[in-house]
Amino acid sequence: MFYSGYFVIISIASILLGLSYGLFLALAASVFILYLGISVSFNTLDLVYKIIPLFIIALPSGVISEYMAYYSIIRENLKNELEEKNLQLTKYIKEIDSLQKQLIEQEKRKILETFTEDMSHVLKNPLMSIGGIADILDRKIKEGKIEDIDKYIERIKNESKKLNVVLNNVLQISDGKMVFEDLNIIALFDGIIADFKKRIKNLNFNVNMDGHVKFVKLDKKKFTVVINNVIDSLLETKKDSTTIYIQSYQKTISNKKILIIEISNRQYVIPQAILNNIFEPFVSGGSTKKGIALPVVKNIINLHGGTVDVESDENGTIFKISLPIL
Fold first, then answer.
1. 3-class SS at 236?
2. Each residue's pLDDT tens digit, 73-95
3. 178-324 in CATH: which number?
4. Cα-flanking dihedrals φ and ψ of residue 249, to 5°?
5. What is the rounded radius of gyration, in angstroms, for the C-alpha atoms of the chain?
6. Which residues lie in coiled coils (predicted)?
7. Within 13 A of 30's CA, how many CA atoms are on the CB side?
8. In Å, how far from its chain's centre is CA 69?
9. Which of 40-44, 94-98, 161-165 has the lowest mean pLDDT?
């Protein structure tokens, strides 16, 4: 019983205090056992059998304790290092977030500056035309030459309409509100075509609308802007006599009925330099620069749940609008 107590004490000391303390206690116990052995009976083999197990207990227990202490230190160091890294990471995230906000603000300012500059050019042309025509009118009226006054007034009206289209497109950019109604799309096109014929001389239309699809859920105001913008874009390099082709037909895609509207001009070609980015605001390539009319078209068609694509080559240009038939 007394001897077993050595094992318990040495084992506990080795685990709790480490290998050195365990070996020291094993050595002390060995000396004590040797002393008792010599005093009682000098049996060397018996003493060896009693002493060796003490070291056998102390050594692995102490080694385990040392490893536990070592890994505890490593774990603590890793924990401290991890906390430090987390603090650094949090700091870096805040710095990145701050830089990102600065970049966003810079990009916003850049976009606003570019938009303002481009819009000033877009608005300047009709305004200068109106101002120039007004000066001519003023001079002719003062000179009493009023025989051509109707011609100049008509030109002012046309430039005013162009200005109104530009301003309307600007308003459409920020207006995401949709008012859907069942519209007679054939009648809608008839009205738009009539307005174009009044405004532009020698402009012809070849229309072939699908009579089976008369009523479509659309926002009348916004969809009218779409058609006006598409036709206007096809008339940028208008010839003496131009024909705009319009046709519509149904198509089933993934069990969904789709109305396809194609609007084309066989005499107009979009430069390849801007074709792929034609729906981006103020896209430019070579001597050609576009405004915001076609980006507005894409935005409105997207709000209708549809798509718009364009193809252009030596055979002309065609816009294809796809709308869900609800």
1. coil
2. 777 888 888 888 888 888 888 88
3. 3.30.565.10
4. -160, 160
5. 45
6. 75-109
7. 17
8. 52
9. 40-44
* pTM: predicted TM-score of the whole model, two decimal places: 0.59
pLDDT of residue 1: 43
Give the residue from 152, 161, 172 showing the smallest Cα distance to 295: 172
| Phi, psi dihedrals of residue 278, rounded to the nearest 5° | -60, -25
Tokens 């792929």 correspond to what residue? 276
**Tokens, residue 281:** 């605001």
Q: What is the pLDDT of residue 79?
A: 82
Distance CA(198)–CA(244), nearest Å, equals 15
Q: What is each CA distance from 120 to 123, 174, 260, in whole angstroms?
A: 5, 18, 35
Residue 267 DSSP one-character state: T
Percent share of the chain, pLDDT over 70: 68
Q: How many residues does the chain have?
A: 326
What type of residue is 272? Q
- Enumerate the domain spans of the chain: 178-324
